[in-house]
Specification:
The chain is mostly beta strands. It folds into five domains: 96 residues, Sandwich (Jelly Rolls); 77 residues, no CATH class; 209 residues, Immunoglobulin-like, CATH 2.60.40.420; 152 residues, no CATH class; 87 residues, no CATH class. Helix content is 0%, strand content 47%. The protein is elongated, with a radius of gyration of 40 Å. The model has no long low-confidence stretch (mean pLDDT 95).
Length: 728
C-alpha cells in the first residue's frame, strides 16, 4: 500500500490536466485539496474517467471486431527464435528475461499478407562440400571464387548442406584457356577428349594441350580446340575429359589394301601389347578395341567425335595411354571457395569420376523480378491461412508455366494430375503480369509438387520443387504487454515450457499497450486505459481484437484518421445507368488521397437511373472535401456518366486523447467556486483501477494536491483470449 501525497500539480488555465491516475491493478481513496493563490474568486472542475483515450478504428462502420472490458491490447512486438506455435503462446503468460526485463504475452502475430516469390528458370549444378569445414553463410547471388584456380561461379543456394548450387558460365567454342580439376599426370601435347557420352564414347570434341600450356599453380590449361577433325563446342562446367598420350605400342595396318570406313576388323602387322578396351589412333580417327584375335583387332570406329574414314595400308596404329579422368571448366580438387560479399568459405569435396550434372530449375527470390539473389528451393514451406504467389514475368520463365500436383512430381508431364484447389493462374509465363498463386487453407493437400508444364509435354521435367503445408507453424513475432524492468534487447533470452526464446537482432519494436474499458461497435470507438510505462496510442497503430471463443481467430485492426463516416448525396439520375444492386464495391478514383481499396460502398440503382449509396467501410486518409468516383463500368456499363459522391464527415484517429472528456457524466465538480486565498477540501474521492482524476482551472492560480492511499485491487479483471493446447 502506498499512502500520503498521491499527486500534486499547478496546471495552466483552461486546460484539462491528469492530476492522478491509478494503475490497472490498484485503486485509491483520496482527498483533493484545491488552493486558490490569487486575490480573486476562481472556479474549477474535476472529473473521474475510466479511460485515457478513445480510439477510432478501421473496418466496417458497424464493426464486427471483438472487444470487451478487461481485454489487453498491444502494439508492442518482439521477434524471437525459435518462436511459438499458436497453441503454445498462451495469452497472459508472464516472462522475465535473463537481463531482468518482464513482460506478458498477448499472442503470436500471424502475418496474412500475400507472399510473393519471383521466379527465374536457370541452369545450375550442385557441387559437394566438406560441410563440417564451412565458415560463415553464403549469400544468394554472390560470386564464388576458388582459392587455387580463381575459377568463378554464382552461388544459388545450399543443397541440403552437403553441396552448393552454382550457376556457371560455359567456355565458348573458341575458348582456349580453361580450368581443370587437377594437373597431376598431364603433359604438353596430350589429347583431351571432351564432352563425350562415356557409356557409348559417342560425340564430343578432341583438344590438345599446348606447349607450356599447363599452369600447375592455378590448375589451368592452354589448349588447341577441335583436333583430329572434331568440332569445337561450348564446354559446360564440370565436363568429363580423358587425358591421352601416345604409348610405345605402335604397329601398322596390314590389310593389303585400304582399310575402308565401316570395316570393324583391323589386321595389323603385330598385335603385341594391344588389349581389349584399349583406344587406338589411326590418322585422325580414334577407335576402341573390343577383341584381339591374333593380329586381327575387332574395333569400334569413330570414337570421341572423330570420323570413321578410310585409311591407307601401312599407316601407323598407335595405342593410347589413358592418363585419367578430369573435370574441365571447373574447380580444383579440394580447393576452398569464398563468397564475394559474405566472405563465407568452404572446402570442396567433389568426385572427379562423376561429371557435373547441369539441371534446369526454378530459382526463387523474394526481392523482385530483376533481383540477382534467386536461389534453388528444394522444398517450399507454406503456412496455413496465407496466399503464395509465384511471379513468372521474367523472360526465362517462357515455356515454363508453374502448376501444382498432389500425386506426381511432374504432374501431367508424368502420371499425375493438376491440382487446382485455391490455385489461380494469370497470363503467359515470361510476360508482364504472369503469375501462379495458391491459397493455403485447412483443406489444402498436405504435400504438393510444383512443376513446369511446357511444350512439348515432358520437355520441362525436373524444373520444379516440392511444397509442404505447415498446418501448425511457428510464429516468431510476438505481441506483449505490461513491459517493465530492464529494457528488452537483442540476444536477451527467456524460457517458457522448457523452450528458450532469444530476441533477434532488431527484434524489439516498441509500441503502445493498454486495456479496454468500453467498446462502441456502431461508432468503432474504443475506450482504453494506457498501460504503465506505455506510450499513448496514435493514428496507424495496429493491434489484435480478442474473440470470445476458445482458440478463436484474432483480427488485426488499426487506428485510423480520415475514415469516411458519412457521404453526401450522389450525382443525379442518368437514364443510361443500369438498374441493379452493386454490393461491396470500391470507388475507382478520389478527389483526395484516401485509400480506395478499403473504402467500400453498396450502390442501388433504380429504374430511373437514380443511385442510392450506402457506406460500408470508410477506408482511411480521406478529407471531408474528397469526391469519390464510381465508374459506370462498375454499375453495369450502360453508358451513363460516372457516379460521384462527396465525403461529408471523417474520423479522427484519436477521438479523445489523454486529457479530453468523452462523457459529461465523468464530471464530479463543474464550475465549483473557490474564494480568494482559500483552500477547498474535497473528500471521499475514489479512483478505481485504470481511472484518471482530471482537473480544469479557470485561471493558473489554482494548485491541486491529492492525498490518500493506494492499494492493490482486483476490481478490474484482465480478460485474455483462452487457448487449449491439443492433448491438454
Amino acid at each position: 500500500m502506498t499512502a500520503g501525497r498521491l499527486a500534486a500539480s499547478k496546471p495552466g488555465a483552461t486546460t484539462n490536466t491528469v492530476l492522478y491516475r491509478t494503475p490497472i491493478d490498484k485503486s485509491a481513496s483520496s482527498v483533493m485539496n484545491v488552493c486558490n493563490q490569487s486575490g480573486g474568486a476562481l472556479s474549477y472542475r474535476a472529473a473521474i474517467r475510466d479511460y485515457e483515450q478513445v480510439l477510432h478504428l478501421d473496418g466496417l462502420n458497424t464493426s464486427a471486431y471483438k472487444f470487451a472490458k478487461g481485454n489487453p491490447i498491444s502494439g508492442y512486438k518482439i521477434t524471437l527464435e525459435p518462436g511459438f506455435q499458436d497453441a503454445s503462446a498462451i495469452p497472459g503468460t508472464t516472462f522475465t528475461t535473463t537481463n531482468g526485463a518482464t513482460a506478458t504475452i498477448l499472442d503470436v502475430f500471424k502475418p496474412t499478407e500475400e507472399v510473393v516469390f519471383y521466379a527465374k528458370v536457370i541452369d545450375v549444378g550442385t557441387t559437394s562440400i566438406a560441410g563440417d569445414g564451412q565458415a560463415g553463410t553464403f549469400s544468394n547471388g554472390e560470386t564464388l571464387t576458388g582459392a587455387t584456380s580463381g575459377f568463378t561461379a554464382t552461388f544459388r543456394g545450399m543443397d541440403a548442406t552437403t553441396g552448393v548450387w552454382t550457376q556457371y558460365t560455359d567456355i565458348a567454342a573458341g575458348g582456349t584457356n580453361v580450368s581443370i580439376s587437377r594437373t597431376t599426370g598431364l603433359a604438353d601435347g596430350m589429347y583431351l577428349t571432351i564432352g563425350t557420352a562415356l557409356d557409348t564414347l559417342l560425340g564430343g570434341e578432341v583438344a590438345t594441350i599446348n606447349a607450356s600450356g599447363i599452369n600447375t599453380t592455378t590448375n589451368a590449361l592452354t589448349i588447341t580446340r577441335g583436333q583430329l577433325g572434331t568440332t569445337a563446342a561450348a564446354i559446360p562446367a564440370g565436363s568429363h575429359v580423358n587425358a591421352w598420350s601416345a604409348s610405345a605400342t605402335v604397329t601398322t595396318i596390314a590389310e593389303g589394301a585400304t582399310f575402308v570406313a565401316g570395316d570393324t576388323t583391323l589386321t595389323v602387322a603385330n598385335s603385341t601389347g594391344f588389349t581389349s578396351g584399349g583406344i587406338i589412333i589411326i590418322d585422325n580417327e580414334l577407335c576402341q578395341i573390343s577383341e584381339v584375335n591374333g593380329n586381327d583387332l575387332t574395333i569400334v570406329r569413330g570414337r570421341y567425335g572423330t570420323a570413321d574414314v578410310d585409311h591407307n595400308d601401312g599407316v601407323n596404329t598407335t595405342l593410347l595411354t589413358d592418363n585419367g579422368i578430369y573435370l574441365l571448366n571447373f574447380w580444383s580438387e579440394g580447393e576452398t571457395i569464398t563468397g564475394s560479399s559474405s566472405n563465407a568459405t568452404v572446402a570442396l569435396n567433389f568426385n572427379t569420376s562423376i561429371g557435373q550434372t547441369i539441371l534446369t530449375k526454378y530459382l526463387i527470390s523474394t526481392t523482385g523480378v530483376g533481383a540477382t539473389d534467386h536461389a534453388v528451393q528444394a522444398i517450399n514451406q507454406y503456412d496455413i491461412d496465407r496466399t503464395y504467389k509465384y511471379n513468372l514475368e521474367d523472360a526465362s520463365c517462357n515455356n515454363y508455366p508453374l502448376k501444382f500436383s498432389a500425386d506426381d512430381a511432374e504432374g501431367t508431364n508424368g502420371s499425375g494430375t493438376e491440382y487446382t484447389a485455391g490455385v489461380s493462374k494469370v497470363g503467359t509465363a515470361g510476360t508482364s503480369g504472369a503469375y501462379t498463386s495458391i491459397d493455403i487453407t485447412a483443406d489444402t493437400q498436405t504435400n504438393l509438387f510444383a512443376y513446369a508444364d511446357g511444350s512439348p509435354a515432358g520437355s520441362t521435367t525436373g524444373v520444379g520443387f516440392n511444397a509442404s503445408i505447415i498446418d501448425n507453424p511457428s510464429y516468431t513475432d510476438i505481441y506483449i504487454y505490461d513491459v517493465s524492468g530492464e529494457a528488452l534487447a537483442a540476444a536477451d533470452t527467456f524460457t517458457i515450457s522448457e523452450t528458450t526464446q532469444t530476441i533477434q537482432a532488431n527484434g524489439v519494436s516498441p509500441g503502445p499497450f493498454g486495456y479496454i474499458q468500453d467498446w462502441y461497435p456502431s461508432l468503432c470507438h474504443l475506450k482504453v486505459t494506457i498501460g504503465e510505462g506505455s506510450e499513448a496510442f496514435a493514428a496507424n497503430d495496429s493491434f489484435y481484437d480478442t474473440p470470445t471463443l476458445t482458440n478463436g481467430t484474432r483480427t488485426l485492426t488499426t487506428v485510423r484518421t480520415g475514415k469516411a463516416l458519412s457521404l453526401g448525396s450522389p450525382s443525379g439520375a442518368d437514364g443510361s445507368r443500369t438498374a441493379g444492386t452493386y454490393e461491396n464495391i470500391s470507388p475507382n478514383s478520389s478527389g483526395g488521397s484516401g485509400d480506395l481499396a478499403t473504402t467500400k460502398v453498396t450502390v442501388v440503382v433504380d429504374g430511373s437511373g437514380a443511385a442510392t449509396v450506402t457506406l460500408l467501410n470508410g477506408g482511411y486518409g480521406h478529407a471531408a472535401s474528397d469526391t469519390l468516383t464510381i465508374n459506370d463500368a462498375q454499375l453495369g456499363g450502360g453508358g451513363a456518366a460516372n457516379l460521384t459522391i462527396d465525403v461529408s464527415t471523417i474520423s479522427t484517429g484519436i477521438h479523445t486523447d489523454q486529457t479530453e472528456i468523452y462523457n459529461d457524466e465523468d464530471y464530479i465538480f463543474y464550475g465549483k467556486t473557490i474564494s480568494a486565498n482559500t483552500t477547498d477540501k474535497n473528500s471521499s474521492i475514489i479512483v478505481g483501477p485504470g481511472q484518471n482524476l482530471l482537473v480544469y482551472s479557470s485561471a493558473a492560480d489554482l494548485s491541486y494536491q491529492a492525498n490518500g492511499f493506494e492499494t492493490s485491487s482486483d476490481d478490474y479483471e484482465v480478460v485474455n483470449m483462452t487457448k487449449i493446447q491439443s492433448g491438454g
